[in-house]
Amino acid sequence: MNLGQFVQAFNDRTKEYAGTPIPVVVTVYNDRSFEFITKSPPAASLLKAAAGIAKGSGVPNRDKVGTVTAAQCEEIAQKKMADLNARSIEQAALMIQGTARSMGINVEG
Predict the structure, then answer these.
(1) Are residues 49 and 33 in the same domain?
(2) Which of 7, 26, 35, 103 could form a disulfide with 56 if both were Cys (CB 3.0 to 4.6 A apart)?
């Protein structure tokens, strides 16, 4: 395995995310070959982008830092559906709304 090969393969697979943090599972074998699996971006980073904020609240139950709509939460849930432990988009959207509330983001609608 050459580091340049890994970097090239990684950049090719993640170019559509343009600076968004992406969880990756990397496996390197004894013969120095590798494979990696990219996951969807974390819900928190997608929520921050949707709300237009830099970071969540330090005291989310008291200080609210932004607002997202239920439709935005459903859109994020559709992006993350493969990585979530939910049976339907509605359940996944509720999980995303819970993440938003824990970050101090109001959910409207």
Answers:
(1) no
(2) 103
